[in-house]
User: Fold this.
Amino acid sequence: DIQMTQSPPSLSASLGDKVTITCQASQNINKYIAWYQQKPGKAPRLLIRYTSTLESGTPSRFSGSGSGRDYSFSISNVESEDIASYYCLQYDNLPYTFGAGTKLELK
Amino acid sequence: QVKLLQSGAELVKPGASVKLSCKTSGFTFSTSYMSWLKQVPGPSIEWIGWIYAGDGGTNYNQKFKGKATLTVDKSSSTAYMDLSSLTSEDAAVYFCARAGNGVPFAYWGQGTLVTVSS
Assistant:
């Protein structure tokens, strides 16, 4: 199985900050990484697919990049509605696997 | 629009089985891949398996073989997951999800909490 090492586990930010989350795969995943946002008691919401393609409705302050084994996800100008947990997903190989998540909190 | 409505919370005894449902609307169910996922706080999210609603073909995460059985009812556009021989380790929130735009989990149900207790 492909392991997805996500960091940091938690992040504290002020409104307007830029934050970055990284995911490293245990092998090349050919850009097949997606990023999800999850708020307490809710299902995950798909924000970005195939490394950097924003889903319809995803604000442009969200972005993704990377290749090979190393990927990153950023939020520029953090807003209060962005306070949530974020997960990466590799969908290059079965079984699909998620990172452990990053909890974004307000400083 | 795409909707996935899951059945309500379950309290089940150790050793028992439970069947969860995911009723869908807003898309062509018979050509869809439906997945089920498990979320326990801390260990994150795990993919259990998918089923192709067209022919019932399945693909399971090896970890969940023998634990989960996926089925569909095309007449009601509903996906099901049976969980057997439940233990405390099966206590979790379970989600159904549908593939879209090349991503296996583009649309999600609201989740079903399964509690295992005597």
Remarks:
- Chain A has a mean pLDDT of 97.
